[in-house]
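Sequence in, structure out. Go.
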Amino acid sequence: MRKPSAIAGSAVFFLLAPCIVAGLAPWLITRWQGLTASIALIVPGAILIAGGIAMLLHAFTRFALEGSGTPAPVAPTETLVVGGIYRHVRNPMYVSVFAIILAQVLLFGSAALLLYGVLVAAACVAFVLFYEEPTLARRYGESYETYRRSVPGWLPRLTPWRG
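Output:
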């Protein structure tokens, strides 16, 4: 896949996946009503949202520029993406989405949104375990297995992997 196509495909997938899962769906649940007045919740919520968005944009950019592909299963990368944030955690897109949803739970105090977040997390973990990891292992072989053994899936390493 050529880089312009990878960039366009990644942008479309960005709008169709994380923007819906971490933006539209939480809005439909909460209508962003009932914002907490507690600075103790607003500050961490804002940090989680800003960090989550920044990490998502970084991860999507890596897929297009480093991997010459998209995060969408229909247009995968040509090479295994292991640079940038991927040196710290294997699933930064999912971690980012979880952070954004958690931030909204903090900001709006919504039990329904918390349940939604738990269901999203369970679905993502299942997708990674039963589809993504086996697919990546078949596609990239030993290089993926080395990466998988070295970089945690969900809780980022503090020091970057230098594989």
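Check: The chain has one domain: 3-150. The chain has six helices and no strands.
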